Amino acid sequence: MSASKIVREFFAAYDNRNKEAAELLLAEDFTFNSPIDDHVDRVTYFLRSWPNQGGQHDRKVWKMFEDGDEVVVIYEASRSDGSSFRNVEFFHVVNDRIRYAEVFAGRDTKPVPSALPDASPLPLLTPDVPLDL
Q1: Does pLDDT of 22 surpass 90?
Q2: What is the mean pLDDT of the chain?
Q3: Alpha-carbon distance 103 to 13, whole Å?
Q4: Is this structure's pTM higher than 0.70?
Q5: Is residue 132 in a domain?
Q6: Furthest C-alpha separation in the chain
Q7: Does the residue 115 lie in any domain?
Q8: Listing from the earlier edge strand, what are the strands of the sheet with 70-79?
Q9: How many CA atoms lie within 13 A of 82 on its CB side?
């Protein structure tokens, strides 16, 4: 299975609050990193981060880039209070399971544009090129 398909299945499990399905997609040695989680293990991820997803709704994946066993995703999601936010996540997949995930938390956002143009992908992996959203 492709790394991007595994990440999509993980997002579906997360968004549907299906912990059992999510557990099957994470490696036993899974590590999660974010601005508030410093390389936490699988058990800590489910204790600390899994309950926080309850306020997230309507994830819209803008772009997904796959390079072998690595995936980068840009998405926007709304919260139950009506606000929204944009994040970038990096995943490393080994043997069809997510071994590492890192969230680069974005800021609160304006309403999501109806679509990004497919013909001009965002220059995500070129840091010297400014993003013009």
Answers
A1: yes
A2: 81
A3: 17
A4: yes
A5: no
A6: 41
A7: no
A8: 37-41, 26-34, 97-108, 84-94, 70-79, 56-67
A9: 0
Judge contact between 30 and 100, C-beta under 8 A.
Answer: yes
Is residue 128 domain-resident?
A: no
Encode 58-116 in three state secondary structure.
EEEEEEEEEECCEEEEEEEEEECCCCEEEEEEEEEEECCEEEEEEEEEEEECCCCCCCC
Q: Which residues form the domain of 95?
A: 3-108
21: left (phi over 0), alpha (psi -120 to 50) or beta: alpha
pLDDT value at position 120?
Answer: 44
Predicted local distance difference test score (pLDDT) of residue 71: 98
Question: Is 6 in contact with 70 (CB distance < 8 Å)?
Answer: no
Residue with tokens 């679509």: 115
Q: What is the pLDDT of residues 79-95, one digit of tens each?
A: 777 778 889 999 999 99
In the structure encoding, which two tokens stand for residue 57, read together?
């709704």
Amino acid 124: pLDDT: 44
Report, as an integer, the average pLDDT of 66-88: 89
